[in-house]
Amino acid sequence: MSASACICELMTPGGVGAVAIIQLIGDVERGLRSVGLEPLEVGAVALRDLCGVDTGLVIRWSESCAQITPHGGRATTFALMNRLADAGVEVGSAERAALRSRWPEAEDDIEAMMLDALARARSPLAIDLLLDQPRRWRAWNGAEPHPNEVRRVSSILNRLITPPTVVAVGRPNVGKSTLVNALARRSVSIVVDEPGATRDHVGVTLELDGLAVRWIDTPGIRPTPANEPEAQARESSDAIEREAAALAREVAASADLLIICVDATEGGVEPVEVGARPGQELMRIGTRADLGETPGAEIATAAATGDGLQELIGAVRERLAPAAGLGWPGPWAFDERLIASSGKATALRHDAG
User: Fold this and answer.
1) CA-to-CA separations, 59 to 22, 48, 340, in angstroms, rounded
2) For residue 243, what are the contacts with CB-CB under 8 A and spacing of at least 6?
3) pTM recorded for the entire structure
4) Cis-peptide, bond into residue 145, ω within 30° of zero
5) Domains plus CATH for the chain?
6) How many CB atoms lie within 10 A of CB 6?
7) What is the pLDDT of residues 15-67, one digit of tens each?
8) Residue 279: which H helix or E strand, with range?
9) Which backbone phi and psi does 272 adopt, to 5 degrees?
């Protein structure tokens, strides 16, 4: 749709009420002339013959908005809508008109949605994939790949637009803050050689191998003493620390990826201790690998020397945006309207029956 195009929208259900309202958005003068209606001045109202279908009012609300008001019967309303469609006026909605007005250079709705998503995408990995989506959606037949598979892969690829949340949890003084500072290449978290230094969670957006993530460093979770059955509710005599630990659990439960940090000197936390959801994506990493080996860690890192950081970055990216998803050749439903409108996006005519 070019900057001079016009979209018409049926504002009232056909057959309901005495009068129907068809709204024109965009190049109103072009839209009216296309069906033989002489344009009006802004603010004017005129009784006109409506393409030989009916007689009704034409109202010019603004430079880019006008309304045509035929009688409200379904046959009359849809006959007029079809005349507009035949004349080249696009049939759509106010939402669609707003989208197309934001991106007048877009060839069609798919391209306009793509440009909208491109403007919001946070990850560099999204750029080439989004630019190729208009071609993919125009080629998709609505059956292969199956819409459910399109939705499944799209739920992963949508992380390229809205950064997923990575939450690091562990015992106090296990090196979580030093790790996030090393990944960010700047100081974003308090680092002191004292347990419990982080009393609130600290979030920062990081770019990891082309994927933007929101990385959250949480307060340390102390172990639950064996002789205190209800210690989880009062794990420390320090009220502030108890509140911080509760906050850490709340944040951990919302993570797209939960990273459990352990080192050679501190025991690890169990997922249940930090309120992990059933089936939540988990990764166990060793921090401060320069102090010794951490049994059971998938990756060993040493923020002080940089060892293991690239491996960690690649592993996080693969967990959240796997290569199989990035290499998916089918369409990506980066906008929820795409699948809903596929197969009927070109059905501009209305059925009076």
Assistant:
1) 10, 10, 32
2) none
3) 0.68
4) yes
5) 6-102 (3.30.1360.120), 109-160+323-341 (no CATH), 165-320 (3.40.50.300)
6) 24
7) 556 888 888 888 889 889 988 999 899 999 999 999 888 999 999 998 888 99
8) none
9) -65, -30
